[in-house]
Amino acid sequence: MPWFFLAVTVVGAWFTFNAYLPARVRGSLTGPSFLAGWLTSELSSHHFAWQLIATVFFVWAGALEAWPGWLGLGITLASWIGLFGLAVISHHAAPAIELALEDGLGETYRDEIEPEVAKAMERPLRPGRRLIPFLLLDPEVKRHADIPYAPEHGFRGLLDVYVPKVGAQGAPVLFQIHGGAWVISQKRHQALPLMLQLSRAGWVCVSINYRLSPRATWPDHIIDVKRALAWVRNHIADYGGDPDFIVATGGSAGGHLSSLVGLTGNDVEWQPGFEDEDTRVQACVPFYGVYDFTNTHGRQLHDGLIEFLQKHVMKTSLETHRKEWEKASPLHRIHQNAPPFFIVQGTHDSLTPVEEARLFHRRLHATSQQPVCYAEIPGAQHAFEIFHSLRTTHVVRGVERFLGWAWSRELRRRAGGLQAPNASGSATTNITT
After folding, report:
1. Following CA atoms 74, 75, 80, 86 in sequence, which dihedral angle do they give, to the nearest 10 degrees?
2. What total of structural domains would you count in the chain?
3. How far is the C-alpha of 181 from the C-alpha of 238, rounded, in Å?
4. In this predicted model, what pLDDT tens digit does every residue of 348-366 receive, in sequence order?
5. Active site residues per annotation
6. pTM of model > 0.85
């Protein structure tokens, strides 16, 4: 029993250590390191609870009758200190988000949020969510499920609409695009904490499926996304949404796709058969996105992404089809008429490098005529906000404030009869320097 206890404590301590220093090199440990670090950093209190229960059991069973058990106890105590540190770091998301908003929108941005919008945002998150982090339901929100926007694609051509159960009229719209490396996942797997909170605050949220690789080949993915956006523009009023105020968001591959949506509105090349539809959005919030398929500036840590894209998504060589790869890269589609952006990235992301997010922010901020916010979340892994956690709560609140600011600005524009931002449509000039 002492030796068994020691082995268990080493495993538990590795989970804690890995949350601080996840593997970022290419290899067989990348996936397990991400998964372990993700769950440990977001659920540090839950890890402490199971380690405490296990320790009590092992001590009761005689684990301290020999020196390996005492060594295991020491390792456990060190792991608990590390878990406490992870919880402290999670709290740092709040000032990081606020600093990003003040830098991008101005220190007095909260004063620009309309009183009725601010009141809706003040609703507290539902109690107990962090205790049961995967309880992704809300009695105040109604989901209209499996609505076809591209019926010929079956399940991949469906979307869900989340609305306040009390109803909505002329509500702002969030357009959510799931991630999954362009090859896996679906509309009900991501961004639910954000969509549920926004729907409770009066927003209408749409979460879409799209065709996935390897069956689909680029640009099938972005064509589907734009087709779903056109559906929203034409039908969301039936669910209480405002078709003239849509914000695109998504994480990972969804961060890539939502950024492209924000930067390529009304690009007819990716609107075959629906060229006349309006596919602009009024703001964009990408989470831990992929911003450069080409790795032109060497911000990715290895060539794994390029090899994956060549084999499964683009199905062409970067060397021979570089222009197409650049068209698929948000970093190469930046222009001055981009809508307001709020870029969110974790410092400890082992799948999409923080260095690339910094570059995308810097280039977009230098070029766009609209505000660009960038929040680098301390200690956050990839996919950190897809279930309830302390860090998720802080980030959802911050994104909610950004969206409240954007919607308030739109309301003032309409009241004053001013020209809409990004009214001229999007440019497609590549920026590669």
Report:
1. 140
2. 2
3. 32
4. 999 999 999 999 999 999 9
5. 252, 349, 382
6. yes
